[in-house]
């Protein structure tokens, strides 16, 4: 799959896909005559050099557990759980309390707040749009006095463990480019995701489970779910062994995990050994790194036959822990189930767990589906933080909660039709929270303006957040690079600064 300029997936033929993935060595190796023969001798020395282990920008060799020489410094965190809220939660209704919005309710947005700003095509020119006060009231909570809406009672109970970033901003106004920007540092598909970068650089602490796992969910009955594109957990130009492994919500968590009918474990082991031998011979001939990925993935699949059933068995979890996550925790494919799975994966050494929940795109359902979204995600999110903390895992695990942008402080719809109230996409100011891993607990960083329209104080760009995340993992975001098509790429492109004020 690939994406067009709007981030929508477009089909590509298998032939085109194969050609796009073909290495130069494969091309010449498959050319029996002509340019393949002519170029073979001149490429021999270069080919042998290309077969050597990759090196980081500092010249360190890569090992099976990551790049030697990394982390660059002693990181505060070892693992990340990213609770990504696809569709963009409304900061105005959840975390960003602004008394002025109540006073401006029903009045047109002052022109000075949106001049020169870009909005989605659904809004177009926001001139004449009227302000909409929060659907539910806000209250202060905890010793930190953080403002949280009544939509999020469980999150309100853990505010002293959270670091709120209330001055986030981005440039993207549509979902797929904005999600991709957060996860890869680029709006177009094709770059490695942050989970791929971390497993490439730091490796994984488990040999029986993937180092990068992805799980997705969506609230039942929602009408505004977002599509989960595979490039949201892709490895881009990094070797494909660093891409996220998606655990499914039904059947085998991973496709083809079970042995085919009539095939015993002994038979499968023998088949894998023979395939590994043949693949190794092919690798020695053409030096394609994807062959090594294939061997490693076959082996991982075999190991997961025993590790995954144990991972997904909740029978030994105390009842009070299950109750903490909520009534849907035993139902596979729910956000609650995925949150508990995330904790269990981290315990077993998985480096990066990406839990994505769709349905936050409330263009006309603030008074209906927003309640469902919060009910499905609020309790499990808070439970995950509590669970990690009581097990001593929060100190070196970063938990991130947030979407790709926010929602407009002004109304999308008719003010007289409350059942159809909505808010459009809003990249100019929104809120995220982070817990653990050396982030400053009980702290609110930055602020939007009095109408929650624009990031105003201590702004945090997407690249700044990415740089800070890598810093907490012990990585200098300017030094973790990969050479592709003649240029060294990094997660933060050529941007990003560490936001020290949100760190302990």
Write a structural description.
By secondary structure, this protein is α/β, with parallel strands linked by helices. The chain has 2 domains: 10-63, no CATH class; 77-253 and 312-502, Alkaline Phosphatase, subunit A. Helices cover 32% and strands 16% of the residues. The chain contains 14 helices and 21 strands. Strands 5, 8, 9, 10, 11, 12, 15, 16 and 19 form a 9-stranded mixed beta sheet that branches. A two-stranded antiparallel sheet has the order 1-2. Strands 3-4 form a two-stranded antiparallel ribbon. Helix 2 (24-30) packs antiparallel against helix 3 and helix 9 (265-286) runs antiparallel to helix 10. Residues 30-64 have low confidence and may be disordered.
What are the SSEs and their pairings?
Layout: E1 2-3, E2 9-10, H1 14-21, H2 24-30, H3 35-50, E3 62-63, E4 66-67, E5 79-85, H4 91-94, H5 99-104, E6 138-141, E7 146-149, H6 153-156, E8 162-169, H7 175-184, H8 194-202, E9 212-218, E10 245-247, H9 265-286, H10 289-311, H11 319-325, H12 335-347, E11 352-358, H13 369-390, E12 397-402, E13 406-407, E14 425-426, E15 430-435, E16 443-445, E17 447-448, E18 455-457, E19 460-461, H14 462-472, E20 482-484, E21 487-489
Parallel strand pairs: 5-11, 5-12, 8-16, 8-19, 9-10, 9-11
Antiparallel strand pairs: 1-2, 3-4, 6-7, 8-15, 12-15, 13-14, 17-18, 20-21
Helix pairs in contact: 2-3, 9-10, 12-13
Can you identify the CATH class of the largest domain? Alpha Beta
Class from secondary-structure proportions: alpha/beta
CATH topology call of the largest domain: Alkaline Phosphatase, subunit A
CATH architecture descriptor of the largest domain: 3-Layer(aba) Sandwich
């Amino acid at each position: 799959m690939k994406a067009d300029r709007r981030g929508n997936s477009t089909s590509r033929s298998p032939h085109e896909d194969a050609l796009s993935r073909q290495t130069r060595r494969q091309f010449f190796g498959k050319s029996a005559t002509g340019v393949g023969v002519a170029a073979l001798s001149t490429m021999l020395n270069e080919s042998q050099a290309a077969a050597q282990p990759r090196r980081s920008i500092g010249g360190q060799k890569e090992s099976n557990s990551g790049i030697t020489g990394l982390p660059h410094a002693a990181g505060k965190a070892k693992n990340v759980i990213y609770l990504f809220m696809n569709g963009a939660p409304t900061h105005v209704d959840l975390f960003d309390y602004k008394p002025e919005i109540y006073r401006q309710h029903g009045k047109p947005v002052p022109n000075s707040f949106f001049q020169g700003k870009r909005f989605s095509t659904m809004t177009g020119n926001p001139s004449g749009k009227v302000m909409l006060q929060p659907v539910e009231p806000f209250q202060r909570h905890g010793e930190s006095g953080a403002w949280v809406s009544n939509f999020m009672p469980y999150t309100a109970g853990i505010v002293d463990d959270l670091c709120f970033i209330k001055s986030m901003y981005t440039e993207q106004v549509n979902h797929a480019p904005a999600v991709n920007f957060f996860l890869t540092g680029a709006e177009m598909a094709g770059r490695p995701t942050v989970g791929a970068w971390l497993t490439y650089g730091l490796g994984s602490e488990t040999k029986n489970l993937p180092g990068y796992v992805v799980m997705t969910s969506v609230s039942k009955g929602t009408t505004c779910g977002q599509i989960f594109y595979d490039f949201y957990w892709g490895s881009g130009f990094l070797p494909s062994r660093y891409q996220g492994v998606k655990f499914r919500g039904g059947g085998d968590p991973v496709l083809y995990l079970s042995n085919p009918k009539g095939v015993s474990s002994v038979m499968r082991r023998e088949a894998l050994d023979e395939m590994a031998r043949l693949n190794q011979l092919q690798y020695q001939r053409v030096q394609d790194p994807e062959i090594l990925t294939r061997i490693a993935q076959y082996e991982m699949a075999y190991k997961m036959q025993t590790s995954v059933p144990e991972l997904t068995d909740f029978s030994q979890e105390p009842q009070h822990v299950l109750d903490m996550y909520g009534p849907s925790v035993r139902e596979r494919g729910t956000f609650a189930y995925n949150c508990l799975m995330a904790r269990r994966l981290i315990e077993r050494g998985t480096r990066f767990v990406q839990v994505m929940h769709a349905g936050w795109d409330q263009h006309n359902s603030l008074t209906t589906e927003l309640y469902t979204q919060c009910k499905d995600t609020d309790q499990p999110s808070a439970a995950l933080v509590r669970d990690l903390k009581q097990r001593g895992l929060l100190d070196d695990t970063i938990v991130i909660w947030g979407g790709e942008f926010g929602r407009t402080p002004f109304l999308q719809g008719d003010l007289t039709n409350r059942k159809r109230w909505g808010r459009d996409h809003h990249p100019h100011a929104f809120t995220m929270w982070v817990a653990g891993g050396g982030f400053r607990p009980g702290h609110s960083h930055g602020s939007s303006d009095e109408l929650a329209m624009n990031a105003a104080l201590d702004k945090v760009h997407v690249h700044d957040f990415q740089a800070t995340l890598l810093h907490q993992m012990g990585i200098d975001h300017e030094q973790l690079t990969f050479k592709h098509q003649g240029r060294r790429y990094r997660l933060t492109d050529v941007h990003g600064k560490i936001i020290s004020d949100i760190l302990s």
